[in-house]
Specification:
about 375 residues; mainly alpha; three-stranded antiparallel β-sheet; about 70% helix
Length: about 375
């Protein structure tokens, strides 16, 4: 038995020695080092983790085929577009609340912020109308999308859904959008319906205009008009005009950044784009960002935020500074940078909403003096 134990121990040691002599692997979080004992060299292999796809992208790709095709048709996996259409509605509602807070009418604490009911209605409406806009865009651009690397996998361009089926889905969305619009007053319905020609016009604008983003700005910021009338049932152009122009400049800024992802394809296809018109310089982007912030400040002033004491102005300065820092950090030659900056514009939009609401809150504690006759 003692001899057997000795033999077993020797065999175990031999196996351990053999294993150590063959290969030793040492792992770290980002580097794998492989050392071969029978050689005089060491091999280092850098292992980079593959970035995980966003949650919505994984959800859309994992959905049943018909549902996945619909979700990709309406860009469900890219909610930034929904938010950029939704935010101007909040600008309009918040600025209308400013008019109430700055007037001699009694105002409660909740008046400083958009009502949850309006927020929910506009969130649903912007999802429906942005989806309809995506379908219209893809139907117009079917032949172009097949020639662009980023868009050739879209359902209509790839043939996953026919033009007739896409048209039926579009009609369903337009009917749903009209149903949501009927929640508002007749005046607001008329204002909202007036945006439809611009929704149809944008996909064609890129064929005939050097800067089609201007048409997109008119379309995407129509929610400012609808949001304002939803609260006050009228339009005060001294307040709305600078705010609406600010929205157009903001759209020109973020969609120019977005267009830099497709500028090579746009050159080959002869399509107009602000990215091609302005080139790789950032000066127009800074001009749009700074002008946008100043025009929003002018709108706040005309609505009743006293300058410079009201809290809205330092908040707007911070939001505009953030937007300029975002522009400074972009490498326009890198699509990933452009996509990231496009997303970060949503934070600027919500920061503007917060700035207006802070100004409204300030007005509640500093009401204007009553008008004496």
């Amino acid at each position: 038995p003692a001899g057997n134990m000795l033999l077993l121990t020797e065999n175990t040691e031999m196996l351990r020695s053999f294993a150590r002599s063959r290969l030793a692997v040492v792992r770290s979080p980002c580097t794998r080092q492989v050392r071969f004992a029978r050689g005089n060299w060491t091999k280092n292999e850098t292992t980079e983790s593959v970035p995980q796809k966003p949650l919505l992208t994984r959800f859309v790709e994992g959905a049943p085929q018909p549902l996945s095709v619909y979700l990709r048709l309406v860009r469900f996996q890219k909610p930034a577009g929904n938010m950029l259409l939704f935010i101007p509605c909040l600008w309009g509602v918040s600025m209308a609340n400013t008019t109430i807070c700055a007037s001699t009418l009694p105002a409660s604490m909740g008046t400083a912020f958009p009502s949850p009911e309006l927020v929910a209605v506009f969130a649903l409406g912007t999802y429906i109308m942005r989806s309809a806009g995506c379908i219209i865009n893809d139907m117009w651009d079917k032949d172009i999308d097949t020639k662009v690397e980023r868009t050739k996998v879209r359902p209509i361009a790839s043939g996953e859904i026919s033009m007739q089926a896409a048209g039926a889905v579009l009609v369903a969305h337009l009917c749903a959008g009209l149903a949501v619009l009927c929640y508002f007053s007749q005046y607001t319905i008329m204002v909202g319906a007036a945006s439809l020609p611009w929704v149809v016009m944008y996909p064609r604008a890129k064929r005939y205009m050097a800067v089609p983003q201007l048409v997109l700005g008119v379309t995407f910021n129509w929610g400012i008009l609808v949001g304002y009338t939803a609260v006050l049932n009228n339009l005060d152009w001294s307040v709305i005009a600078p705010l609406y122009l600010a929205g157009i400049l903001w759209t020109l800024e973020y969609d120019t950044i977005y267009a830099h992802q497709d500028k090579v394809d746009d050159v080959h296809l002869g399509i107009g784009s602000a990215a091609l018109y302005f080139g790789d310089t950032k000066a127009p982007l800074y001009a749009c960002a700074i002008s946008c912030g100043m025009l929003i400040g002018l709108s706040c002033y005309n609505a009743g935020h006293p300058f410079p004491y009201c809290w809205s102005y330092p908040a707007l300065l911070g939001a505009t500074s953030y937007l300029c820092f975002t522009i400074a950090a972009i490498d326009l030659s890198k699509p990933a940078d452009c996509d990231k900056a496009f997303w970060e514009n949503c934070y600027f939009g919500f920061a503007v909403v917060l700035a207006i609401c802070l100004g409204n809150w300030w007005l509640l504690f500093h009401p204007p003096p009553p008008i004496t006759v």
